Amino acid sequence: MKQLLLVALVLSMALASQAQQQILRVKMDDVLKIAEESEVPVIVNFWATWCGPCIHEIPWFEKYVYASEKPVKLLLVSLDFKEDFPAKIAAFAKKNNYRSQIVWLEETNADSFCPKIDSTWEGAIPASLFINKAKGYRKFFGRQLTDPQFKIELEALLK
What we know:
- By secondary structure, the protein is of the alpha/beta class.
- Helix content is 46%, strand content 19%.
- The protein is built from 6 helices and 6 strands; from the N terminus they run αβαβαβαβαββα.
């Protein structure tokens, strides 16, 4: 009986650890590489756990991405503080049931990393980049998108 309980405990711990998403530490060049190497269109969203507009828009981003009949990837790039990586970000993602891949940008010099995304981006979040390399489509938004705006932009990305 004790062995059965031990096996059940080990199995439940293994499943729980698999359910928690691993948050990778990246540089902006890594983010761009992920987007460029994707076989499907990509939406790169820059956000933070402390950003109200960011956490307001992520649920509809995920809703439409996961309901899409065409494949599309949503990459959530956290701009949280160093002390929040990885525990606070992972706990926040789990609490909010985020399903998308999350990475943490370990760069702090916006003057260096923002122009790599778009020449107009000054570092404000939320910000989103839509890329469909098969179509040569690239569109940047340096602001929060509403639910209807996101749906329109997703359709444009995928058509």
